[in-house]
Amino acid sequence: MQKATLLFDSKCMLAEGPYWKADWNAFLWVDIEHGTLFSYSFTDKHLQTWHFPHRLTVVLEEGNHFVLALDRKLARFDPATEKLDWLLEVESDPTLRCNDGACDPAGRIWIGTMGLDFRAGAGSLYCVDRGWKLEKKLENITISNGLAWSRDGRSLYYIDSPTRIVRTFDFNPDTGQIAYRKDAVVVPESLGTPDGMCMDEEGMLWVAHYGGSGVYRWNPENGELLDKISVDAPHVTSCAFGGPDGKRLLITTARENMTQDQLDQFPHSGGVFLAEMPMGGANVFAVSI
């Protein structure tokens, strides 16, 4: 079992949304509750931040811009000029917010939502297609989280965290239609709650376990637990491949829901960690709609 090392002690309340931006040679992540976007350069170890008066949950690349999920809406952000343009409202109910999101192989945006009070079944999973058309794909979701696609683009893996299940859906790359196939992974309660995830080049899923002190490697074909990367923070929230060689795993963590005694024991909670990997990640797609 490998152990991740601390990359940057960002002390985020809820770090999420790790993303490798190759042309910057930098890892990006967000602090949801404080509305902060971070960029850490591997070239000069410089940290840059942008702040928004909204909860910030998702960073997706679109040319020289980002598409951000801010509270209940999507916006286009130019990091050079800091101009923000609102694109669409995902949810109209002010008691909801966006959570995890990703782009599929065709460049569509998939974004999930959840209740601010975590109430059961309040959230949904949406797809934003050509012309910024919003379509609800799943409902009665509680905490919409990890999204990943198989290497052939024919399967979507998805997590509604409280279920502790990674579900597999048949995925049509041409239309974006999905159909439930099976429960791929069932996470035992003793290992925490599945949160964000990504896929490696061998088709295996790396899942961040909130309350599980690590990122776990699962085989989505047979549900077998294959490996674990240990993290010096109990609440591990998400992970993404990147780095100059494509074989670094950036891991985000949270400080929320921790007592002072726990923070004393795990002082780097809310920081971002890095693991050197024997393999690279599967493709991560940019917005193209």
UniProtKB/TrEMBL annotation:
Keywords: Hydrolase, Metal-binding, Zinc. The active site is at D195 (proton donor/acceptor). One of its GO terms (molecular function) is calcium ion binding. Transmembrane segments: none annotated. It is an enzyme of class 3 (hydrolase). Its cofactor is Zn(2+). Residues 14-255 form the SMP-30/Gluconolactonase/LRE-like region domain. Gene3D superfamilies: TolB, C-terminal domain (2.120.10.30). Its EC number is 3.1.1.17. Binds 1 divalent metal cation per subunit. InterPro entries: 6-blade_b-propeller_TolB-like (IPR011042), SGL (IPR013658), SMP-30 (IPR005511). Pfam families: SGL. It comes from the Bacteria. GO terms for biological process: L-ascorbic acid biosynthetic process. Substrate binds at R97, N99, D117. This is Gluconolactonase. It comes from Lunatimonas lonarensis. The lineage of its organism: Bacteria, Pseudomonadati, Bacteroidota, Cytophagia, Cytophagales.
